[in-house]
Structure formats: structure tokens, C-alpha cells
Amino acid sequence: MPANFPEIPRTRSGFKIQPATRLIRSPYNQVEEIWEEPGDMWQARLGFSFLTKAEARELRAVLTSLRGHVGTLFIHDTAHSNEGSWNGVPVVDGMDEYGVTLNVRNFAVSQVVAKRGDRFQLNNRLHELTEDVLSDGTGRAVLTFQPEIKTIPVDGDPLISDEPKGLFRLSNPNQIPDWSGTKAGVRNVQVEFVEALSEV
After folding, report:
1. Residues 6+ away with beta carbon under 8 Å from 64
2. Is residue 24's pLDDT more than 90?
3. Could you give the domains of the chain?
4. Other C-beta atoms within 10 Å of 149: how many?
5. If you ran DSSP here, which 8-state letter would residue 157 be given?
6. With contact defined as beta carbons under 8 Å apart, do 108 and 135 qualify?
7. 56-69 residue pLDDT tens
8. I need a surface site. Which of 44, 163, 168, 184 has the fewest CB within 10 A?
9. pTM of the predicted protein model
């Protein structure tokens, strides 16, 4: 089981979804062609304006333990917070759920339980809602989100809305800082990650 990213205070935490699309425009007649493939993925950039020597040592140990692109970490976006209540204990409702919608049960009944832009974790993957979520009189709802489900969940799989995490690996192992700094600590460290698509 992958470890969680250490609780080291961040100055910046930026997460975004990189769509697996490409626009090709003919230079002759300006006709556009859009290519869309599976493989939308999260990218994360973590920044630390100052790390104490102890924090820098811990961060370096964690990043080194990943062995380049081999290891993975669960990372939470500390700059993001959900605005919906997420009342209830939502779980997957049914089998063979895939794509960018998901049937869910066990929400509180007949209310807006989640807001567009809220995030949730399903198994190892982080998702972001693209529409508000309204539960029906039985506590069921349909979630619409990005990126798409990659591994089909099982009926009853839980949705995590409290500090949801994504599974990431280093985007470039050469970016591990050399920790040059003062006796007090290290300044201006930035580390970038990409979603570990082979494991979600």
C-alpha cells in the first residue's frame, strides 16, 4: 500500500487535470481535427518556500524512497476544500460503473449534497465534480465528474470526500532538490508529480 505524502507545511499546492486531447489544424485550410484518447491525468505541483533541516531531511528521504518513477504516494491538495455537505455515507450503487458518471447511494435524502468543483476519491483515483449533486428521496444520486473511471469499482465501494487523495509518482526524478541551504534550512523547493495511471 503506498504511503501518504508527509505532513510537511506547503506554501503552494496546485492540482490540475491534463486532458488527453490534441488539436490539429491544417496549415492550408485551417480545418481543425480533435483527437481524444483515454488517459486524462492529474498533475500536482507542491511548493515549499522554507523547510527546516528536519523537514528537508524527511522530504528528501520520502522522495528518494520512491526510486525514481517506481514508487507512488497518495497526495492530498491542501489548497482545496469541498463546498458541499456530502451528508451521508455515499457508496457505489451497482456494478459495471465506468465513464464520467457514477450511480451512488446512501446520501442524505432530497438535497444538494455536493457542489460542482468538489472532489472525491474512489479507490486510488481522485475525481472532480463538474455538476452539482442532488440526491433523491431514497438518498441516491448520479455524480458527473472528470477524469473518467479507469478501474471499474465494485458495488458498495466507498467515496472519500474528506481530504480525498490521488495516487502520484514523481514526474522527473532529477528534480529532487540537492538541499543546498543555510544552517537554518532550505528555501524555495518545488516538486512535481503525475498521476500513477497504471495503478488507478
Report:
1. 176
2. no
3. 3-78+168-199 (3.30.200), 88-160 (2.40.30.290)
4. 19
5. P
6. yes
7. 999 999 999 999 99
8. 184
9. 0.90
